Amino acid sequence: QRIGGDAIEVTNIIGGAAGAHDFDPTAARLITLHSAELVVYNGVELEAWFSGAMANAPDSVQRFKAAQKAEPLLPSGLHTIPLGDDDDTGSGVTDPHIWLDPLRLQRIAQNLTISIAGLVPADQADQVRSRGAGLQDDLAALHQRYVDTLNQSCALRTILTTHDSMTYLAD
After folding, report:
1. Secondary structure, 3-state, the chain
2. How far apart are CA 169 and CA 49, in angstroms?
């Protein structure tokens, strides 16, 4: 919504108490997915339900896999995994929490801006690109605040967590 502004309508199909991992779309949600111009999803096995839900979607529905634009990491190390259009790695070990890294999210925002600008009327595309650039600037500033704060405040370089989502913070 921040990128598209009033030029687009954003619908969160998961919502409520359901999480992306175990969401089971209703018939109404499938209709919403199948009638969208653009469906944005994380990828990297976060939404196990996605492939099945989109199997019968019209070819006109564009799919934007955020992970493909963000070089996901393995939780056990700091190695990126290249992803193709249809490849969700199948490994079960890729860290899907790509939105926790401001620089990866910045790359996602850059590519999503291009996708959204291509969908809106031509007279609104410059505004979309401007909002996308503003978001990218904000994410760069957030990254710098992370770096500055962690470098000033953390004497140790060990992260203890109960969830494997902190790989991106460590990177």
Report:
1. CCCCHHHCCCCCCCCCCCCCCCCCCCHHHHHHHHHCCEEEECCCCCCCCHHHHHCCCCCCCEEEEHHHHCCCECCCCCCECCCCCCCCCCCCCCECCHHHCHHHHHHHHHHHHHHHHCCCCHHHHHHHHHHHHHHHHHHHHHHHHHHHHHHHHCCCCCCCCCCHHHHHHHC
2. 27
Tokens 């955020």 correspond to 66
How many CB atoms are closer than 10 A to CB 23? 19
pLDDT digits (tens, 9 = 90+) for 60-99: 999 999 988 787 776 655 444 455 444 444 444 577 888 8
Interatomic CA distance for residues 2 and 53, integer angstroms: 26
pLDDT band at 55 (very low <50, low <70, confident <90, very high): very high
Residue 13's identity, in one-letter code, is I
pLDDT of res. 93: 57
**Amino acid letter, 133:** A
Per-residue pLDDT tens for 33-45?
Answer: 999 999 999 988 8
